[in-house]
From TrEMBL:
GO terms for molecular function: transferase activity. Belongs to the ALG14 family. This is UDP-N-acetylglucosamine transferase subunit ALG14. The chain crosses the membrane at residues 6-27, 101-119. It holds the Pfam family Alg14. It comes from Branchiostoma floridae. GO terms for cellular component: endoplasmic reticulum membrane.
Length: 129
């Protein structure tokens, strides 16, 4: 019983040391100059991974709240997920009516966003590892 208490106290002490080290490194880096997130024109490039099964709708709902500061947007979509691709195209055309895009395979580049298509491991009956 006493050994368990010693282990628990040691574990809590180790967690406290890690927490203090983390705080030290966070506060130490606050005053340093960092590379700004925004580019020279004030925009922030944004990567969006679009999934299937309702995730596309959720992601687009989140994206609708972002201003054009978060552009260009780069979408990663599975090659076989045509429904998500259509939803994202519809969403982007709605945000940028009248703008035309240029198609350049193997990915699509528009003036305000780009689409990258990836094959899925399950399409090849293989695992990720």
């Amino acid at each position: 019983m006493a050994a368990t208490g010693v282990l628990a106290i040691g574990f809590v002490g180790l967690l406290a040391v890690f927490a203090l080290l983390r705080l030290f490194f966070v506060f130490r880096g606050l005053g340093k100059d960092r590379k700004p997130l925004a580019r020279s024109d004030g925009t922030i490039r944004t990567l969006v991974v679009v999934g299937s099964g309702g995730h596309t709708t959720e992601v687009l709902r989140l994206m609708s709240g972002l201003s054009d500061t978060y552009s260009p947007r780069y979408y990663i979509i599975a090659e076989t997920d045509q429904m998500s691709e259509e939803k994202v195209h519809r969403f982007e055309r709605g945000k940028h009516p009248g703008k035309k895009g240029v198609v350049s395979l193997p990915f699509i580049v528009l003036s305000y966003c780009a689409f990258f298509f990836l094959s899925r491991n399950t399409d090849y009956n293989s695992s990720m590892f």
